[in-house]
Amino acid sequence: MTAPVFLADGGELADAVRSGGGTVVLEGPEGRHAVSVKRLRPGEEVVLTDGAGTGVAGTVGNVSGKDRLEVAVTSVLAEAEPRPLITVVQALPKGDRGELAVEMLTETGVDRIVPWAASRCVTQWRGERGAKSLRKWQSAAREAGKQARRLRFPEVADLATTAQVAQVLRDAGLGVVLHEEGSESLSAAELPADGGIVLVVGPEGGVAPEELASFAEAGARPCRLGPTVLRTSTAGTAATALLMARSGRWS
User: Fold this and answer.
1) By percentage, how much of the chain surpasses pLDDT 70?
2) Half-sphere exposure of 24 (CA within 13 A, CB side)
3) Residues contacting 184, CB < 8 A, separation 6+
4) Cβ–Cβ contacts within 10 Å for residue 195, how many?
5) How far is it, in rounded angstroms, from Cα 149 to Cα 75?
6) pLDDT tier at 250, thresholds 50, 70, 90
């Protein structure tokens, strides 16, 4: 198995990256997970990352208590920003399906996730409940990033309105609204030579006509995935996987 990945904060990781060696202490919640859950012991290999594309590989040294271990750095790691960048605009699903969508998108390799308050969303993020829900999505992306052995975790943006999503689409090299009645298949859509790709995934009730019109004005095209209709929590992952293969990011 590949070495497990942990998120390391603070200056020690930056110092180790600059010097190409030294020792990094992992403690607190991440240290507790490494020691008490993963039960890492001296001599085992680990990877520490800042979640932004930089990290180190190392060997576990001294383990003390239930939440502290030292990692002797053996090499510096770097994950370049991928091309094309893939953003998924995810309408808010019901229940915990939003966190499931974030987990799967992260494991598939998406670079940015934008929660969208579509007009037909049953779930609404307001006040402290909205802030708590956003934190859950961000935590899901962080944990899935470690599970997927990524050095660069996806950004989970603030909740976006339809107007804000339209602006994201205007800035994209390719904007796509996943739609079962789309005249074009995503598997045949021409990928951009430059710029990122933005996928819009609607809610359980579908994308409203006025939202489709707004996104079309911003340059987005309605595309279908295939003959079956996927749930809002799985459609983005399927589309991302297709684009990963077509763009060469999985080659």
Assistant:
1) 100
2) 33
3) 221, 222, 223, 224
4) 15
5) 16
6) very high
